[in-house]
Amino acid sequence: MNDSAPLRRPDRPAVLLIGMPGCGKSTVGKPLAERLNVPFVDPDLLIIAGEGGTVLGDVSENLDREEFLEVETRYNLAVPSEPSVVAPGGSVIYCTPAMERFRTFAVTVWLDVPVEALEPRLGCLKERAVVIAPGATLHDLAAERRPLLEQWADLRIDAADRSPEALVDEIAGRLAE
Ligand SMILES: Nc1ncnc2c1ncn2[C@@H]1O[C@H](COP(=O)(O)OP(=O)(O)OP(=O)(O)O)[C@@H](O)[C@H]1O
Ligand SMILES: O=C(O)C1=C[C@@H](O)[C@@H](O)[C@H](O)C1
Ligand SMILES: [Mg+2]
């Protein structure tokens, strides 16, 4: 990731949002897609629809970590390589084959939100099926994921204390640079 490099990548028509669970990928992704006039894709919703259940926890409850990530990888590999805004679950950064494929057609934007702001946003981590080791805290998870987020991101957005509308403005502006 190089924060100062020009971002516009005409050969990459999609935008992939990454970040910690609850950072706002789904919330920001939808209006961003409207602004860019492209479809919005939330692979978590496709997983629920395809695997059955009403929340991701219904899908993950009988799967171990690796089995769940295999399911997540499979659904993310099936996202069309077309103009779109894609907002997968935060754990997509562990799905290396899917991330490598996204890199061929999407600019990856990391919504960076501090743990203190995430805690009140996140309800039940189990219902959300957050991929977190037993006994680990959100701080532990953020420390584990930060290097991966840095590795995959083309652009990091400081998304603390900012409305979804303000984030859409900033991301759309950076994409147009
Ligand atoms: N910029 C923001 N300001 C305040 N609250 C926000 C903001 N973005 C999202 N939220 C709230 O945070 C919660 C989680 O947001 P969201 O579901 O979009 O996160 P996510 O990044 O998609 O998480 P996941 O990785 O679990 O899919 C929601 O209740 C949403 O309303
Ligand atoms: O960041 C995470 O670990 C996750 C976030 C959820 O939205 C889901 O995508 C998934 O169950 C895991
Ligand atoms: Mg989401």
TrEMBL record:
Its cofactor is Mg(2+). Substrate binds at D44, G90, R145. ATP binds at G22, C23, G24, K25, S26, T27, R128, R162. Pfam families: SKI. It catalyses: shikimate + ATP = 3-phosphoshikimate + ADP + H(+). Mg(2+) binds at S26. Monomer. This is Shikimate kinase. It comes from Alienimonas chondri.
